[in-house]
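Translate sequence into structure tokens.
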Amino acid sequence: MLGLSITAIGMRSIDQCLDIFHTLREPMQLQYLELAIGSPCGVEVDYGDTPLILHDACLYQERMRMRLNPLVPKTWQAYAAFIATHDVRAVSLHPPLQRDCERSQLETALAQMAKTFQVPVFLEVMPSPEYWCSSLETVVDHPLLVDVSHVLIWHRGDPVQTQETCLSLLKNHPVGAIHLSHNNGQADAHDLIPASVWFGDRISQWSTQYFVTYESLPTTQAVYERLDKRARKPVQSHPPSNHDAHGAIL
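Result follows.
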């Protein structure tokens, strides 16, 4: 399936994000919306019959963001309640810091979370080495979300190495989802995706096997780019600002 993350069009009200999603649904052949950091995704919002993916701690209640921590089961409750009343196809989340748990503890917690939610749970590969799943050596035994831009940071912007690593992950590890965005190899900047990007001709095939989510827009849809990004030009290959530092992982 092919979808769009609110991260790609955010820094707007949730109503504006939903309007943009429905505008882009046909031209981009979108099949689901990913709720994520970018705009407050309230539990009270009417998402209609749109299939959803929940990404990390994305839900808000009374304008307060609700935590989602695989190591703290009580944080799962609000997400389980939302899933029970909406068409949620999967949940993806950031792994914890390596210092916070053993690999086996994380794997056990993720299996229990998936059992509680009754939908697939995917663990995202991260750009910073202090996290689990931030290298081939720290990947855990659980279905992954492969973020191509995070892998680009692993290889400091080298597209050939990035392609090799992404394809190796897809071949040799259980993978359920892919995030598509672009950056200069230094920070997770969520730049517009150029037509010449290495994965461009693979999206159609991938979307028959995985949940493939645009986490930034193709250059052809630049008018809908997230508002904080539209204020900064040029879009591609700019130095990372303070807002785009590694800490702002989406």
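Note: Confidence is low (pLDDT under 50) at residues 235-248.
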